[in-house]
Amino acid sequence: MVLNKTHILLILFFGLVVAGVVIKSNNKNNLNKKEEINYNNIKSDYSATRTIKQDDELITIDFSQCTQDRVRIDVGFGSTTIVIGGKKGSNCKVNYGGEIENPNWDGSLPFICEVPVSLGKVSFTKNNYGINFSPIENYCIKK
């Protein structure tokens, strides 16, 4: 069989498509392998330079600082807990979770994040149901 330019280009094209699918699949698998931090051992940082700061309806996290911290933020119908686990390479390890009107909440923090420290300070809005973490949702998975 003789291959002409069109055959070769089609073979290359399909090869690149398959390679792209494999790479995308591997990236998705890496996202699902985020390390959960042992957030039970992390205490609140009450220093003036803490990583998590609350100012009324705004919560600001300094991902570039990324020192261990824990904070519980009360909201209208429940609470949200955020735990900073420290740096892992060029990422900041974060777990968060919360409850809405649930006195039996077990304290689990089902969201596991690895946020690039290059984001620096990011502010999140607070509402009656929790914290809006949409600015970092692409760096998080739910276990």
Verbal overview:
The structure is a single chain. The chain has a 5-stranded antiparallel β-sheet with strand order 3-4-5-6-9, with no helix packed on it. The chain is globular, with a radius of gyration of 21 Å. It has 143 residues and is of the alpha+beta class. It folds into 2 domains: 1-33; 39-142, no CATH class. Helices cover 20% and strands 38% of the residues. It contains 1 helix and 9 strands; from the N terminus they run αβββββββββ. The longest helix is centred in the N-terminal third of the chain and has 28 residues, at 5-32. The chain crosses the membrane at residues 6-23. Keywords: Membrane, Transmembrane, Transmembrane helix.
